[in-house]
Amino acid sequence: MSRNSDELKGVTLLGNQNVPYGYEYNPGVLEAFENKHPENEYVVALDCPEFTSLCPKTGQPDFGRIVVRYIPERLMVESKSLKLYLFSFRNHGDFHEDCVNIIMKDLVRLMSPKYIEVEGIFNPRGGISIIPFANYGDSAHQDMVRRRIVDVLGTRRQA
User: Fold this and answer.
1) Nearest CA to 111 among 65, 53, 68, 67?
2) How confident is the model at residue 23, as a pLDDT?
3) Which domain holds residue 55?
4) Which of 112, 120, 123, 153 is the most core-located residue (most Cβ within 10 A)?
5) Does the pLDDT value for residue 80 go beyond 60?
6) pLDDT at 118 over 90
7) Count of beta carbons in the 10 Å neighbourhood of residue 129
8) What CATH number corresponds to the domain at position 39?
9) Would you please indicate which residues are annotated as catalytic (active-site) residues?
């Protein structure tokens, strides 16, 4: 059950050796492809351990890990486009919490997933690690949205 060329029309970055890496925030680089299993409830996890953005006040680089987990509906994010998108934050000056929410909202606009969560695990600055978490669910997944927030809060209290 291989994908045919019609199913891959929107995927232009994967396999393209001449793709430039942009370092200015660019949600336009995100690409999606069709989910062949929309009837299934399954989770896709994507982990970017080398996320970089800039402090909006000092301009100093911030380093962290971005983890995206989602239950796809009709569309899925293409991973190379996600990598290029996340790299586009390199010169973007925003707080960690803003970056995580922007990423989540851009992915919701791209895919309209059943459920999505984005977590940022940022390296300590000034002795403090910041670990923002944002999630979204369609009308059928609102219980999951609330449950995951409670799970995250409970985990953080125990740490």
Assistant:
1) 68
2) 77
3) 27-158
4) 120
5) yes
6) yes
7) 12
8) 3.30.1130.10
9) 55, 62
Looking at the domain assignment, is residue 16 inside a domain? no
Distance CA 53, CA 87 (A): 9
Q: Break the chain down into helix, strand, coil percent, rounded to 5.
A: 30, 30, 40
- Structural domain count, the chain: 1
Interval 33-57 mean pLDDT: 96
Q: Which parts of the chain are beta strand (E)?
A: 32-34, 44-54, 61-71, 75-77, 115-122, 133-137
Place of tokens 């809060």: 153
At 154 the pLDDT is 83
Is residue 47 one of the residues assigned to a domain?
A: yes
Q: Does residue 3 sit within a domain?
A: no
Return mean pLDDT, the chain. Answer: 91
CA end-to-end span of the chain, whole Å?
44
Considering the entire predicted model, what is its pTM? 0.87
C-alpha to C-alpha distances, 16 to 11, 62, 110, 141, nearest whole angstrom: 10, 29, 21, 36
Structure tokens belonging to residue 39: 């009837």
